[in-house]
Records
---
Amino acid sequence: MSQTQPSIGDMLAATVPMVRTLNLAFGEISAERAVLHLPDQPEYHNHVGGPHAGAMFTLAESASGAIVLAAFGDQLSRAVPLAVRAEIGYKKLAKGPVTATAVLGRPAAEVVAELDAGGRPEFPVRVSITREDGAETGEMTIVWTLRPNA
């Protein structure tokens, strides 16, 4: 799919209220990689003064959604992308703004071929969450599916 960053960011902000609530900012978005930023906002801090785990989960899940739209947006007329399950690991204390970088865990062409063959493909999206100094504070894997329209 060849959409520009603002159209995917605008689409997510318009359809996913949490993206607006957390003031997520969109960086690079392509079918290969999606980068989103969570600004440092005291109203979303946890008990140790960093971003709340729920805010970081939402950041990572939103980055995965952005790459899914970039990679499979041309399939929306025949299938709905849905998150199936997610697993997150918090590795280091996050303080200040954090960034989520998502990458597809399976080639997009392979996923579309499975959809073409009548299947309901599942595919992982891996997300790394980092703080400003580059240290990885968390990692998440979200398994998505393309559910064919009835």
---
Amino acid sequence: MNFADYHALLSLYADYTSVVDNGDWDRWPEFFTDDCVYRVQPRENHERGLPLATLSLESKGMLKDRIYGIRETLFHDPYYQRHIVGTPLIRAADDDRIVAEANYAVLRTKPDQMTEVFNVGRYLDTVVRTPEGLRFASRVCVFDSEMIPNSLIYPI
């Protein structure tokens, strides 16, 4: 993998983090291919090969439905989230595809409370080249705890 490709991957991760931290929900699905997979799964299920996930979306259309739900149908206490994402480790790369993983921590702040650690785990990503640049074909967020507080509203 050359430096330009690695820089493009770092930019993809940084831009993604900025969009989800700032709640720019219209832009979130654009980080993915049309036939993408986005899954948030507990570590225990992932390691055992069990398919049950806290959230499982299997197309860009499903991601857009999730955004509609965030805006129009889900009722929850408002909160902010802030991601801290480690440097991606490249597991495999060729001319068309990059397989990478990175650790993440998501902090959550409700306006009237102290900041808390909301979710910690690792991203398992398959990134592909498209005419628009690098996009996630698959993003599996494997979280370490068997529990998450309340419900999962915003993307990880």
---
Amino acid sequence: MADSTYRIQGATGDWEVVIGLEVHAQVTSNSKLFSGSATAFGAEPNSQVSLVDAAMPGMLPVLNRECIRQAVRTGMAIDAQINKWSRFDRKNYFYADLPQGYQISQLYHPLVGEGAIEIALDDKNPEDTKTIGIERIHVEQDAGKLMHDQHPTMSYVDLNRSGVALMEIVSRPDMRSPAEAGAYVSKLRTILRYVGSCDGNMDQGSMRCDVNVSVRRPGEEFGTRTETKNVNSVRFVMQTIEHEANRQVDVLESGGKIVQETRLFDPTSGTTRSMRSKEDAHDYRYFPDPDLLPLELDDAFLEECRASLPELPDAKRHRYENELGLSPYNAGVLTAEVETARWFERLLAETARAAGKQPAEAAKQAANWLISELFGALNKLGTSLEESPVTPEKGGDLLALIAKGTISGSAAKQVLEIMLETGEDAGVIVEREGLKQESDTGAIEAEVDKVLAANADKVEQYKAGKEALFGFFVGQTMKAMKGKGNPQVVNEILKAKLA
């Protein structure tokens, strides 16, 4: 749960933390921002480097249309202003993994302007929300990578990432707790994955955060901030904020001053350390890139971008609640990841088809089974939904067998276990294991008569007002039928006989 009243209790009083995030998201594209080089993760070092990426003399950048399209679609997904006119600038600095000696970015005229993202403050109540402002999204090229662990005295340079297209998504300093920042990164990642503009694989570096943290007395002016670079998981973002905010409070309460600087996070110790003092923008000597014309977008391009957007997570969650009748919690769980939502919709379609129902009629059964039964079983196996041996189609067939009364809920659990082990169809398992539920009223009535005859004293007690005995009669009947009696039919017959 995010907490808007998060405070750090110092020796001299309470402190409030102020957080802004700069998220670098690698754009989904088969080639780089200004060259045709591949962008596949895990390739051999320096195997995806063109003459442009390596900054060979005379090489000119050519803008990748798909990268711009994906950035525009991302801006539209957060209701941001799309700037029809934008410009690329050179950000000049020297580093061994930056062969040009500058990075092509967008400082003054970004592609995407102000937008917003709504985060849930309580996982169990998605309506309890807070809006986090987005200041801008600009497009820029990534630098290469220094490899310090390949040689005892030298660092190697891998330029595979050099020139890869990034969207830098800059939030406003609207977050006030580690949990809010975690919720923001998770929600942003969800949106990017729905849109398809970034795969969100933080462990592979295709999405990483620069975490800006400052502290102040509640309600006072902003304090001096630090920026912790390249944090690559939601958990580490939250740890960075926790540690950095407490460190700053300790410094201020001991009479020190916070230095505006760049820091690094150490995942092993959960602490940050100083990297360098923070440079001002003028240190980079920004100026318009002379090799690139300003970028001008026409209405047809913007219309195509908007038309290509999928149903986004918030809209999908509201539809699941309003049209399918799902609880806010279930709707939130099912829409939190695009793969889960797609899996659920295939499951729902198959369940409705196989059971002869409308999707809205089958939705609650499908949602509860997916969240409670399948997720639980997969967690025990350490398997993801995408790797599940049970496909949505196989799951739909199993749920249809329950809906039709062919098998009981307890038998369905047995069937699921075998499906996860063997990948077999539910119908095959039910036939082989003899798990079909008995719905023949004649057969059930015969067993009910035997049970009532054998327990005449309890029948008298029931009719005298001891209604709790009804469960006893159901249990005895189910036991006599070895668990294969249809509980609904058993209940109906018993009620009629005992009336």
---
Amino acid sequence: MERFVENLIYTSRWLLAPIYLGLSLGLLALAIKFFQEVFHLLPNVLAMAENELVLVLLSMIDLTLVGGLLVMVMLSGYENFVSRLDISEHREKLNWLGKMDSGSLKNKVAASIVAISSIHLLRVFMDARNIPDNKLLWYVIIHLTFVLSAFVMGYLDSMSRKDKDKDKV
């Protein structure tokens, strides 16, 4: 009975596979939104003010960072929690694939969130005259919370790696 339960629990990791596949649909949605921005930008680029252009470009960078985050979570999450990706020798393989454990994945996600938040905050500051001061303050507080969280997660990960290195010696 114990072996059956353990096998069932171990096999249930495959329930994550459709979730990672669903993230690829999110990536498709991001790509559609990105090119929608491009198609709106190109015909109007000569008539746009510099600030407007920068805001649109920051929005596109934001979408790109979120896309990269999705790819990282999909591939690393699948490899860490479901199954190794069997990529043939003839195909190009990402150099970080197979090297990111769940701890480093969390740190990469946290760093990506800080980068995305930074770009969002920059967009907000570019339009600061149209945003009330109390909202600006909240944007900064939320961003600093992300920064602090990422720093603490990185620090804790660093401490746990040092503890593991001491245990090896």
